Structures are given as structure tokens and as C-alpha cells.
Amino acid sequence: QVRLVESGGGLVQAGGSLRLSCVASGTFLSINTMGWYRQTPGKQRELVAKITIEGSTNYADSVKGRFTISRDNAKKTVYLQMNSLKPEDTAVYYCNADILTIANMWRDYWGQGTQVTVSS
Q1: For range 33-40, the mean pLDDT
Q2: Which residues of 63-82 are buried (b: 16+ CB within 10 A; e: fewer)?
Q3: Taking a C-beta distance cutoff of 8 angstroms, is the pair 81, 94 a contact?
Q4: CA 31, CA 50: separation in Å to the nearest integer?
Q5: pLDDT score of 50
Q6: Residues 64 and 47: beta-carbon distance below 8 Å
Q7: Which of 29, 19, 2, 21 lies closest to 109 in space, CA to CA?
Q8: What CA dihedral angle connects 94, 36, 22 and 85, to 10 degrees?
Q9: What residues have CB less than 8 Å from 111, skipping those under 6 apart?
Q10: SS3 category, 4
């Protein structure tokens, strides 16, 4: 069974930093794009950042210059370094990955989410 497990969320003051981690576990063949999304109550889940297996990145305009996504393919882990945090970054952050299953099919997986709260 494939699982994505996030960690690193919490409460931080505005201007502070947090680092989120997400590790993929279980049996599978490969991981393609990995990313982070976030969601606040009453709003749709939105892309924060994503990174391909080759290391190409894409960021939401609202986080450019403040957040950095990276991955360690050997550890099957994706990270999100969040600096200069703002109250509007408060959300539940979800890890996402495109994973090639042992059935040789690409599937989209989500983590359970981790809360990030930025106080003003």
C-alpha cells in the first residue's frame, strides 16, 4: 500500500520559517512529479509548488521568492522550505505525488495533510 506521510507543520509567527517533509512509503516502481498544495476552509485546494523527477520546479506566484521545493529521490522524500511566512499562508498543506504502481499504472496520491498556522 502506497502512502504519503507529511511532517513539519505547526504554529509560527509571521516572518518565521517552517520546513515540511513528505515521504512516500510502500511498494511502487517510480515517482514522477511531487508537489505541495494547500487548502483553507471554504476554498479550493491550490498548488503551492511542484517538482519533477528531473528537478524542474513550478511555484504559485504568492510564494515565489519565499518558498523552496526540493526532493531527495533516494529517500523518496519531497521538502518545502517556507521562509518569511505570512498569516495568509495559514492552511492545511497536502503532499501530492504521481506514482507508478507495481501494476505499472500511474496514480495520483495524497498525504493526510499537515496544519500550518502563521500568527500575526
Answers
A1: 98
A2: beeebbbebeeeebbbbbeb
A3: no
A4: 13
A5: 98
A6: no
A7: 2
A8: -90
A9: 3, 4, 5, 6, 22, 94, 95, 96
A10: strand
Cα 57 to chain centroid, rounded: 12
Q: What are phi and psi of 6, to 5 degrees?
A: -95, 155
* Angle CA 85–88–90, to nearest 5: 75
Give the number of other CB atoms < 10 A from CB of residue 98: 17
Residues 42-84: tens digit of each pLDDT: 999 999 999 999 999 999 999 999 999 999 999 999 999 999 9
Residue carrying C-alpha cell 528537478: 55
Query: Collapsing DSSP states into helix, strand and coil, what is residue 105?
Result: coil
Residues composing the chain: 120
Q: Return the residue matching grid coordinates 515540511.
A: 20
Hey, CA dihedral for 44, 118, 15, 110, is it positive or negative?
Answer: negative
Mean of pLDDT over the chain: 97
Please give the backbone phi and psi of residue 106, each rounded to the nearest 5 degrees, phi first. Answer: -80, 130
Find where cell 476552509 sits: 41
pLDDT for position 97: 98
